[in-house]
Fold this sequence. Notes:
Elements: H1 9-17, E1 22-23, E2 27-28, H2 54-77
Antiparallel strand pairs: 1-2
Amino acid sequence: MEDPNNPSKEILDRWSKDPNNWIWGMFYYNPKDKRIFPPKKKEWMGWTVNFANRKSVLFFIGMLLFFALVTFTILRKH
Length: 78
C-alpha cells in the first residue's frame, strides 16, 4: 500500500501531468501533493506553485511582497 505522506515518483509524475490538477491549464491545484514547488506539465519549463498547499501559497506571496518592496525601494530613490 502506498504511503500518502511519501508518494512514489510515478505518482508524483502522474499528478503533475494530470489535467484535472490544473485550473485553466496553468494553475496547479492538488491537495494530495505536499511539494511546495512541483514541476510544471513540461518539466523542462521549471516549477510552479501548488495553490492547494498553504506553505506553497505563503512562499509565493512572500516572494511577491519581496519583489514589490525591492521595486518600490528602487523607484523611490529616483
